Amino acid sequence: MTKRIVWQKEESFVVDEFKKFIMRGNVLDMAVGIIIGAAFGKIVSSFVSDVLMPPLGLILGKVDFSNLFINLSSTEFATIADAKAAGAPVIAYGLFLNAVVDFLIVAFAIFMLIKQVNRLMPAKEEAPTPRKCPYCKSEIDEEATRCPHCTSELTATK
After folding, report:
1. Are residues 111 and 136 in the same domain?
2. DSSP 3-state helix, strand, coil percentages of the chain (rounded to 5)?
3. pTM of whole model > 0.70?
4. In terms of residue numbers, what domain contains 132?
5. Is the torsion defined by CA of 23, 24, 25, 26 positive or negative?
């Protein structure tokens, strides 16, 4: 019975520590970013396969990119779905082309988003270089006439 109480205390400690970790701002921000990114990826994949590639395939001679594949078996298959259902080895280069277009659209969208965020955020001001004593090289106040470290007389700057 004593071991059970100790175990519960340890479990409570681990749960409390986990709660503290999860509730930190950057962890929550990262989680939200991952969830939104996954949803955005699904939208882009749908856009590429359902909206962008069909007209592009029509322009290029009624080609269905998602059904382009190289059959590595000796049996003939009409579609990639038939080949995969039969367990035949295939190189699905049409699906790869769709994935490349997906990636390029996502990368461009992220680039544009970051570009806009950087444009809207104020530029960071550089901290002024601190004044240094010409004798002991310690940092001193801009209006000081005497160094507090080595007591050398200084000319005030304005």
Report:
1. no
2. 60, 5, 35
3. no
4. 128-158
5. negative
